[in-house]
Design a protein that fits this description.
Strand content: under 5%
Radius of gyration: 21 Å
Helix content: over 70%
CATH class: Mainly Alpha
Shape: globular
Distance between the termini: 65 Å
CATH topology: Amino acid/polyamine transporter I
Oligomer: single chain
Length: 408
């Protein structure tokens, strides 16, 4: 038994730390820019758009919570799909998750370098290299240290949102009528902007699915991981809903919607303080986004290696730090290559479709596994997999349909 110990990850994460990790990866840099676009599209019904997006995300979150109870393994997406639909689909799902993490990290690193370049007189490639190298070192150092760092940043991020919400509570007396908030002020035709806003808002909820990649470093994972997934989604939904209500009630909503830094403008309007604190927090959120994606991508590679879906080289654990150092350094190297060599805007947009593709495969796996005798706890939820898969397919279908309609 002792000989096998170095090949295992160190179990140090509790439920609170898992929730901090989940909220940190979900409430990231995206919401700091996304609220303006949703206001522009959905108008008074922006809170309803966030609520609908939360329902769509919640359908798949429940599937993840159910599956991680019976298959608590790193690389959860790949493991779930491989067991349900076969190794080929499992490999596809796992590599899709890794691609999402690596590409989005490269995009965030570039965005951070662009912002930091206005404050520090260093070339963009140098800034990108410094930030990715530093975060890879933290990830290699230890999962507890990495998640504690991410938890600290998460407290700052969520604290900033709570300050805006608290300062904006008096504005809620100016909210539009309930029919307008629900998107029904103009009949059923008024629901189209709500759905469009929900499609955009959906991507602000993505991140809860990363929690299952940390289960092999979690104490009592079959209890902690499902709860952390559901707690993460609930906290995120409440934060976004309240924030959207304050934004809708703001007196100069048009300025917020048109700004490239909408939360900074909303902060200024609600508190009377300048925009600099929120602008700085956006940069910190970017750092957090890269770190949690490095952690997630490395553990997905590690889990896939132990399932025989990737070479065993990725499944080695450092004997001293008890972290997947090889997989972590591989991920960091790919992030650097992409960030320094390629324009990633189009690729970043494409990752949205990859996320929904992975969600669809995971939900279909729940349906298949629920029909097998070795997973009796999944049987009552079998058809939930089909419902959640249809919702996952509906989002890209709507995007493609609206894109085609706009083309005409």
């Amino acid at each position: 038994m002792a000989a096998e110990q170095p090949h295992r990850l160190k179990r140090t994460l509790s439920l609170p730390l898992l929730v901090f990790y989940g909220v940190g990866v979900t409430v990231g840099a995206g919401i700091f820019a996304l609220i303006g676009e949703i206001l522009l599209v959905a108008g008074d019904a922006a809170p309803m758009a966030f609520l609908l997006a939360g329902v769509i995300a919640g359908a798949t979150a429940l599937s993840y919570a159910l599956l991680v109870r019976v298959l608590p393994k790193a690389g959860g997406d790949a493991v779930f799909v491989a067991r349900g639909l076969g190794p080929a689909f499992g490999r596809l799902a796992g590599l899709g998750v890794v691609a999402i993490g690596i590409i989005s990290s490269a995009v965030i690193a570039l965005a951070f370098a662009g912002y930091a370049g206005t404050l520090i007189a260093l070339p963009q490639p140098v800034l990108v290299t410094l930030i990715v190298t530093a975060l890879a070192a933290i990830a290699c150092w230890g999962v507890r240290e990495s998640v504690l760092f991410a938890a600290g940043v998460t407290i700052l991020e969520v604290g900033t949102l709570l300050v805006i919400i608290a300062a904006g509570l008096p504005l809620l007396a100016n909210l539009p009528p309930p029919a307008e908030l629900a998107g029904l002020g103009h009949g059923w035709a008024g629901l189209a902007p709500v759905v469009t806003g929900a499609v955009i808002a959906f991507f602000a909820f993505v991140g809860f699915e990363d929690i299952e990649n940390m289960v092999e470093e979690t104490v009592d994972p079959t209890r902690a991981a499902p709860r952390a997934i559901l707690w993460t989604l609930a906290i995120t939904l409440v934060l976004y809903g309240l924030l959207a209500l304050v934004a809708v009630a703001a007196p100069q909503r048009g300025i917020i919607a048109a700004s490239p830094a909408p939360l900074a403008v909303l902060f200024e309007q609600t508190t009377g303080v300048g925009r600099a604190p929120v602008a700085a927090m956006a940069a910190v959120a970017m750092i957090n986004g890269v770190l949690v994606q490095i952690l997630m991508s490395a553990r997905t590679l590690f889990g896939m290696a132990h399932e025989g879906l990737l070479p065993a080289w990725f499944g080695k654990v450092d004997a001293w730090r008890r972290t997947p150092v090889r997989a972590t350094l591989f991920v960091a190297a790919l992030i650097l290559v992409l960030a320094l060599a390629f324009p990633l805007v189009t690729l970043a947009e494409a990752t949205s479709f990859v996320v929904l593709g992975v969600f669809t495969l995971v939900n279909l796996s729940l349906f298949v596994l629920g029909g097998r005798t070795e997973y009796p706890s999944l049987r009552p939820w079998r058809w939930w997999g089909i419902i959640a898969a249809l919702l996952s397919v509906a989002v890209p279908a709507f995007l493609l349909w609206t894109g085609a309609a706009a083309g005409h």
